[in-house]
Amino acid sequence: MKNPWSKSAIFSAFIILVIVFTFVMINSYYTVSSDGRFVKHPTCYDSDGLNFYKKGVVVVTIYEDCEQGCRSVKEDECDADRIVEYFCDDGAFSTVVFCNCSNGRCV
Question: Is the pTM of this model over 0.90?
Answer without folding.
Answer: no
